[in-house]
# Entry
Amino acid sequence: MQAPLQTLRSIFQEAADLRSPRELLELIVGRVRDALEAEVCSIYLYSEEQKELVLAATCGLRERSIGRVRLPLGEGLVGHVAEHMHLLNVADAASHPDFHFFPETGEDRFKSFLGVPIVHFRKLIGVIVVQGVNPTAFSEAAEAFLITIAAQISGAIKHLLDNDILQELQYGITNLNLKVTGLKGAPGIAVGQVVWPRRESDLDTVDENQAGGIVEEELQAFRQALQAARQTLKESKQQLEGSAPKDVLALFKVYKMILSDQNWVNEVAGHITAGLSAAAAVKRTVESHARIFEQMDDPYLRAKSEDIRHIGNMVYSALNGEAQDRADETFPERTVLVGKNLSIADLTRCPQDKLAAVVCIGGSALSHVAVLASALGIPAVMGVPELKRRELQNDWVVVDGYRAQAIFNASPELLKEYRRLERSERRLIQGLDALRDKPAETPDGVRLTVMANTGLLADISPGLERGAEGVGLYRSEIPFMMHASFPSEEEQMQIYQHVLEAYAPRPVHIRTLDVGGDKPLPYYEINEDNPFLGWRGIRFTLDNAAVFMTQIRAMLRANVGLGNLAIMLPMVSDWREVDAFRKLLNDALKQLHAEGLDVPEPSVGVMLEVPAVMTCLDELAERADFFSLGTNDFTQYWLAVDRNNPRVADLYDWLAPSVLRAIAQIVAFCANRRIPLSVCGEMAADPAALMLLMGMGVNKISVSAANLLKAKWVIRTIPMERARSLWRKTRQMQSAEDIHAMLDATLVEYGLDGLTRAGGPGRT
Ligand code: PEP
Ligand code: MG
# Structure
């Protein structure tokens, strides 16, 4: 018999070349059968929903029984193994009291049976079985072999289950629930039918050196194409007039400017005169201009390269006479536009009442398509990998803008669930807009403060538009991460000033550089075995005093004449770090005063993210003007669960009783000590958790602009009395599951079931 590790190695080596999940199962059963010299090896997968085991792969039983043989727990020998979560090794299967014969499998010839449960993180996920024709039990070595295999493949099997292999077996559709993940373009949930824009022309396919025909004719074709592209643009703009906000209509100006740019036009004409075809000349010009923007540090300027390419494609389409073909373009009632480098003109060709969502192959989260989708209130997922056009046309697709996912070929169950969510979201959104200027006040009159989390300049206006009462967390590392080197004091000053000015007189809490962990700086490599416990947050900045000093000076200078700056320190684990910061701050203030600048002294806050702070809240409160609870890191360090590790994702839960108890202690401390506290982690944007935070006494939160109105809705809907009673009940509860269930039921009771998906850990 082969050693189990050898078998596993050969399975994993070959697995890399497989094309479908089914093939992986086939490979495993084939290899295990050979290694044990058995007649049959099969894998049954457990459906948690149906509470039954489904034959998913077999080598030795009849193939047509795959997906058809189904056993409830406890039924048949396989059900017996599953129910007891223990192996079963019998010489004569038919004589076992739990034996159940399935004629479609053709298994009547087989006598011996060895079944081992496949368990993943304490949960049964399947059973692996070998069978033989001789009526002798399998050896102990065979048992050990199968136990090892079952343990080693459990991760891969769980992955298949998460990717809906059971439904694939049931419906016999390949690529069922084909999930692609991209970048968050615009939030929301939509279900619709895939439409690829009619445009076939893609400048990418043009040879840059393609020679032209008669120069005059090529020039004439180019001029006509320019004219047609301008016309298309005009029509697109007209489509939106009256319904889209001004800043969206302004996007068209950018396109128009590029199209009318005489330098650009002359450059194309120059290439044509030099002998290139009109298409090749357009491509050359577009590429050289787009490349300049692509190399820029600023993400917004980088995104401009997409605009230039869109314009190029528009002109190329016109050169190919595609504008005329579009008259008969039809769109289904719920259209999900899917395509490569979609442009805003593509979006506007679809009637607005039919456009449900956008999925863009390529394209950045900052592109104008994302901005337009946001303004139209439809979800957009950007930057997804290449998709096969022909396979997906007219398919039903689910677009989840919150998770930046699109699920093609969705199963009926999934479609039903998402349609329900879509409906309740729609109801919710209709009510949200009205909340912009309303205070964050509970129905029983308790006023809270809701601020915005931000880190990109583009985030400024969404927060303001949604009535943010300040910035509760400005993640200053984001501009650092987008640069090719540490940004200068002047550059930083301008960025900070922009935010401070936009929000003045409302407070802006700028967090000092928080790199390390999962936030690397492209130009400053830190190699550590354990980066989350390493050189990050304030540890990094205190050790790099020059970098820190530059940042502090930039913040202080930005605050001149405004006075709404507050500085927050990330990852503090010891009060001496605050002392060290205060010293630098005083030095910076002295320097700037000496330079003649009238810099006001900002308030200084400590982020509570490291559990050690729980035992030194007093010392920290002596040194800080306020606290800000970073629940993302706090949860991760309190529970010792990596927030980015899918293996332990289920354990990462801020509704776990121990996390809630710790937070409640912090809230009580702050109330007693009268030190202001705000909650700025994702927990505050999770409607279920927000109810509890309110009940504990949290009165200030900061959430991303996308979640701001939803948070306000929760606050304006749930009476404080109810929130307090929910918290009282929660304190008696022993498990996170019970807490989730109670809170979700409460949201449903208040008609906020659309919000049960809006955030929250462990529920992807
Ligand atoms: C947090 O840890 O909760 C937090 C707000 O900081 P970040 O997510 O940026 O680490
Ligand atoms: Mg943090």
Notes: Residues 470-625 form a domain with the TIM Barrel fold (CATH 3.20.20.60). The longest strand covers residues 123-132. The first helix runs from residue 4 to 15. The pocket of magnesium ion (ligand 2) is lined by residues 570, 609, 630, 632-633 (CB under 6 Å).
